[in-house]
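ugh ok fine here u go
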Amino acid sequence: MSDSDAPAERRGRGIDIDYAEVFQALPSPVLLLTPDMVAVDANRAYARVSGRSLAELLGRCVFDVFPDNPSDPRASGPQAVRASLERVLATGGPDTMALQKYSVEVPDRPGVFEERYWSPVNIPLLDADGRVSLIVHRVEEVTALIHARRALGAAPELPLTAEDAMTADLLNRSLELQELNEELRKAHARAHEVAVTLQRAMLPSTALPDRPGVAVRYRPATSFLNVCGDWYDLIDLDARRLAVAVGDVVGHGLEAAGTMGQLRSALSAAIRATGRPATALSTLAAHAHTVDGALATTAVQVVIDRTALTVTYSRAGHPPPLLAHSDGFVEVLDSATDPPLGAGDGSLPRCESTVGYGPGSTLVLYTDGLIERRGEDIYAGLDRLAHSVERHHLLGPELLADAVLADLVPAPRRGPDDDTALVVVRL
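structure:
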């Protein structure tokens, strides 16, 4: 979109703004990087402090332009910056780094490195699908400040001013904060791994050799804040009826995984005992009031009758299943809708609906992580899923599941914002 096409509030109340010139005029040095860490633009301040022209920067990996100092075995600047950029790609959020020593090769003197100190911030720019399309690498050079502090330290007879003391304290605290942040990231990574392992242990295997007509996919969220609330289940009620359920617990980590395990087991027992989706969800809703963390959980329970060629379903606040008929028409199963678990006192009966299908039809159940995007109406995601299923409905379940994920789930370099569970059943 050109500047002239931008909304009035972005044109400065009717005044056209040259955003390229604004970028160049920024006093802070800024480098724009692709997700592959290749430089695509830099402002004048960055070229000045880095000592590199645009011709030397653009189209090159930032770590090729600014390599490690081979003569300094303790040099860690490039590794720290790369780790920060990778965190931005993985989380889709900004990453503020502590003070970094990152020596830079002196222009026109190959192999000669100058000790430099920087305070970097890496900020993602997201595209319409929530993928990181660019990274804003903003730096402030503080080399002169560090050298000044060293000079003061070498001359103890010079008294420190209040400003000097505050600066030294802030630098020390920034280094302490960097160490604490790194420990916190490691702790989150360990907790994420444990929670995902527990989640997988409580769910049926996604490899279903005894069910050639069924494909299952489960992808945990990249962010620890959203992991381990989704579940799926498949149960043969008898020779002709297959029960399929998908659910989503609000919460994250080990707590969500534990709640998920309790609710999945309870729903499994309820559908085995009753054989009716609405009755099973009513039983689960009553049970949810006794389970910590179950409030606002969503679920959908389906029973497929292969003899009657029907699908009977009931939903507790969950996104609707899709039924792709053999001619490609995709039917959204949204008739039987009730509140999520924990809403009300759990005593109200729940509704269910039954639809017919023909041979070669396909049923798709999923959790909201597949269709939700930041700042987008969920119905846009549902339409996107329906179009994907329609386009690929002739594929077998395994290939169809992979095609849907390829169409809807963000690129692997970032990963999904939320857990994603997907079940595809060829009827």
